[in-house]
Amino acid sequence: MYRSLSVEANRALVRATLKMLESDAVLEETSSRDWASVTFTGARHKMALRIEGPDAGERADRFCNRLDAAEFELRGHVVADIVLAAREEIPEGIRLRIEALTVEDA
């Protein structure tokens, strides 16, 4: 059965991102779509994560401060770009919207 590279990369990226949060975070939504340039093949990803609890803001800050320099180990893929697209205060805590680009590792 053929499985899209974007699906495999998305699953690996979600796992790595949740691990980087070092806390209980809730994955609210995720999506990915195949992407290609003249020289690279990969996928664009979006995810929304919710951090709950009285220290949610502090944990979100720590995560966001480390995001630019983060090293992600994704088998067969490299994270070419990852950004915090939005940070929202919600009744349950903090919602972070992350966007990323992964490319196939040659």
Can you tell me about this structure?
The protein is of the alpha+beta class. Helices cover 27% and strands 47% of the residues. The chain has helices at residues 5-21, 56-67, and strands at 25-36, 41-52, 77-90, 93-104. Strands 1-2-4-3 form a 4-stranded antiparallel sheet. Strand 1 and strand 2 (41-52) form a beta hairpin. The longest helix has 17 residues, at 5-21. The protein is elongated.
Which residues form runs of ≥5 with pLDDT under 50? none
Largest sheet features: 4 strands, antiparallel
The percent range for strand residues is over 45%
Helix content: 25-40%
Shape: elongated
Terminal Cα separation, in Å? 22 Å
Average pLDDT metric? 90
Order of helices and strands: HEEHEE
List the helices and strands and how they pair.
Blueprint: H1 5-21, E1 25-36, E2 41-52, H2 56-67, E3 77-90, E4 93-104
Antiparallel strand pairs: 1-2, 2-4, 3-4
Question: Summarize this, please?
Answer:
The chain is of the alpha+beta class and 106 residues long.
Task: For the structure shown, list the relevant keywords.
single chain, 2 helices, elongated, alpha+beta, 27% helix, 106 residues, four-stranded antiparallel β-sheet
